[in-house]
């Protein structure tokens, strides 16, 4: 329990009905966010396409040059990557040798492709056997659609740094067209098998109903009539969600692709985006980026109308790459492990152009705030919860706090402006308080 919880807890009864309901809703949302989530992520592609290299750069803080010493993945390299504290990525790095691929598609088919949240398929742009690569891809997509129809697919056209800069866009567009055509072929294959799959599911359900250990009321919330209903419409039409990216381990494109992947895996992301927008408007910022602490992938972002005029569309992944490189530099000069927390905050001022600061936001995140030079003061003071707990706030202040809870939930950063508590914090600064 935080100091603020201890301070405000006994006084909930002093609040109005609407405010109390808002507090209860906020606490319920926080409890839901704390639930452990596990997402099965398949990382597949031909051997040597760069799957393990990109995984090591993103999640293990490898430098691009250090990935040269990585060996080939044997069978399946299973790892559990904790992300944002309450999300666990069940990452299956699947070896790409032909023998392993055949095994995934035959003996281990159901085991590998069941309950998949995301498939990341990596194509080596310099592969000399494109037709065989595409044939394997079609088989992989067919198996995925059969066992995990709701899974999202991310196709990475990798090693784009090996293509001449002037030709990269044309080469990528050509490969995208081919991959989309092959994906449609894979979906068509499953559609032809759809009646057989429905019959197979009906047989499995009948076996369950005839089993003496099967409890109808336990497995069906609507009783026996619902449980015994035919499965004619059990397999819906196939609508595959797919995105394609051009990537390289030598630039920021890798962070763009993986940020999009993580963006689809984070639960309650709309809540985060809404609160970032509220925070950005409240402090009159141009842009706010929320980074995961270890990988520095952009989890969420908010941009003002003024910030949308920025011509650099790749600035978000560039910042990920820059901060990750700076973290490696700090590790080199301090002698600390790369996975350690290398810094807590810093501020950068670009003359009369803009000011920005990066600071630890929550236990698992950093926040970057960019402010234009139009602001007369960008100085910030960081106050810990224990400092706030030294003074017992009044009932009227509690009401203001609870109103803010409805806007900015407690797990995020709470903003206290000088017009809210001037008698406590003074009138010359904007004060941020870390969330718990």
From TrEMBL:
PANTHER family recorded: RAS-RELATED GTP BINDING RAG/GTR YEAST, RAS-RELATED GTP-BINDING PROTEIN
Keywords: GTP-binding, Nucleotide-binding
Family annotation (CDD domains): RagA_like
Protein purpose: GTPase involved in activation of the TORC1 signaling pathway, which promotes growth and represses autophagy in nutrient-rich conditions.
GO biological process: cellular response to starvation; negative regulation of autophagy; positive regulation of TORC1 signaling
GO molecular function: GTP binding; GTPase activity
The organism's place on the tree of life at top rank: Eukaryota
Subunit structure: Component of the GSE complex.
Upper classification of the organism: Eukaryota, Fungi, Dikarya, Ascomycota, Pezizomycotina
InterPro entries in alphabetical order: Gtr1_RagA, P-loop_NTPase, RagA/B
Family: Belongs to the GTR/RAG GTP-binding protein family.
Name of the protein described by the UniProt record: GTP-binding protein
Organism: Lasiosphaeria hispida
Gene3D superfamilies in alphabetical order: 3.30.450.190, P-loop containing nucleotide triphosphate hydrolases
One Gene Ontology term, aspect cellular component: Gtr1-Gtr2 GTPase complex
């Amino acid at each position: 329990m935080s100091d603020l919880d201890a301070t405000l807890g006994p006084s909930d009864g002093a609040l109005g009905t609407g405010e109390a309901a808002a507090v209860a809703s906020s606490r319920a949302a926080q409890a839901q966010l704390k639930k452990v989530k596990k997402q099965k992520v398949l990382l597949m592609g031909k051997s040597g396409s760069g799957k393990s290299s990109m995984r090591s750069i993103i999640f293990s803080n490898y430098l691009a040059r250090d990935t040269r010493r990585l060996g080939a993945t044997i069978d399946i390299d299973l790892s559990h990557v904790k992300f944002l504290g309450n999300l666990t990525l069940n990452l299956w790095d699947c070896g790409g040798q032909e023998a392993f691929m055949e095994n995934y598609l035959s003996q281990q088919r159901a085991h590998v492709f069941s309950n998949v949240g995301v498939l990341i398929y990596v194509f080596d742009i310099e592969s000399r056997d494109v037709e065989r690569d595409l044939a394997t891809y079609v088989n992989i997509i067919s198996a995925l659609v059969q066992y995990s129809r709701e899974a999202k697919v991310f196709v990475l056209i990798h090693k784009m740094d090996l293509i001449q800069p002037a030709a990269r866009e044309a080469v990528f567009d050509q490969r995208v067209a081919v991959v989309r055509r092959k994906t449609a072929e894979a979906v068509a294959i499953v559609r032809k098998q759809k009646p057989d799959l429905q019959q197979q599911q009906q047989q499995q359900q009948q076996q369950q109903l005839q089993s003496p250990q099967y409890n109808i009321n336990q497995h069906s919330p609507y009783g026996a009539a619902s449980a015994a209903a035919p499965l004619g419409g059990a397999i819906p039409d196939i609508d595959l969600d797919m995105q394609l990216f051009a990537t390289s381990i030598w630039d920021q494109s890798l962070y763009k692709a993986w940020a999009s992947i993580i963006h689809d895996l984070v639960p309650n992301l709309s809540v985060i985006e809404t609160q970032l927008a509220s925070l950005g408007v409240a402090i009159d910022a141009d842009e706010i980026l929320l980074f995961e602490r270890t990988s520095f992938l952009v989890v969420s972002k908010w941009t003002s109308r003024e910030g949308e005029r920025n011509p650099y569309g790749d600035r978000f992944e560039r910042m990920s790459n820059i901060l990750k490189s700076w973290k490696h530099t700090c590790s080199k000069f301090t002698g600390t492990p790369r996975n350690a927390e290398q810094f807590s905050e810093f501020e950068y001022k670009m003359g009369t152009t803009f000011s920005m600061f990066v600071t630890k936001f929550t236990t698992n995140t950093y926040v970057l705030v960019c402010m234009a030079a139009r602001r007369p003061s960008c100085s910030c003071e960081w106050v810990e919860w224990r400092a706030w707990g030294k003074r017992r706030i009044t009932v009227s202040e509690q009401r203001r706090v609870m109103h803010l809870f409805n806007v900015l939930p407690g797990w995020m950063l709470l903003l206290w402006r000088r017009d809210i508590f001037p008698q406590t914090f003074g009138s010359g600064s904007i004060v941020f308080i870390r969330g718990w």
